[in-house]
Amino acid sequence: MIHILDLNFQNIRESIAAFAVETDNGPVLIETGPHSTYRFLRRATKLRGLEIKDVRNVLLTHIHLDHAGAAWKLAIGGADIHVHPKGSKHLANPDKLMESAGRIYGDSMDTLWGKMKSIPENQIKEVADNDIVSIGGVDFKALHTPGHASHHIAWQVNDSIFTGDVGGVKINNGPVVAPCPPPDIDIEAWDKSIEVLRKADPARLFLTHFGEVSGRENVKAHLDQLQESLHEISDWIKPYVEEGESDEKIIPEFQKKMHRHLKQNGATIGMLEQYEAANPSWMSVAGLKRYWKKKAAK
Ligand SMILES: [Zn+2]
User: Which residues span the membrane (predicted)?
Assistant: First the structure.
């Protein structure tokens, strides 16, 4: 039994999710959301008849704050935290991660994300590619899927895949878009990861932003649309980067383009807010700029 938990991030519905999978060894959480929404995580879990204190295992797709920021709270409760080997050091010592987030978010840090405290190393479990983590009769397979983040895992359970951010953002009946925050956007790696998802042939995707895509045909269409969106935005930004355009010019244009695209594909005004909360335009501009600059420097 899989539960989608709405974390009500910034009082916006359906922008960030966590998931609870029931097993014989307690509920397993996939993602925790940020620390700032921990109370909603607890409440949403309770509403499903589950208790956060019974969570013995947390599976993270990656360590961005909107996915993993509350993992340390679950660790205090005794849970093991399963993560990509390249992400583990930031859980053991989150200072660097929080410092760089602090440079970006400044005074809003606390209200947006809350805190991130270190997790004892014996509770951090590194998971290799294609490893299967068996918990209470349920097998969770780790698909290493870089592109959005170098340390990204998509978790497969039977014919479902929890795609974190590598499977894109899709809210309600809006279009699929590719979230591209810094620092490690890698378009080539992302293409390969989409192929990994296709090969696994899932009947359902669970997106952290936000919810379920069900049916093999819908999943196929979703992944096609994701890839198209990814290339569209990265190709769009490339000449701006080559010409050394300023963020002041690129960000508003990118946002305008994004909003046009969302509206043309059925997004309402309220949904634009949900999309921005889940996937801020200025972050994608920063991430894609960094990608092209790195590539040019190679
Ligand atoms: Zn992310």
Answer: none
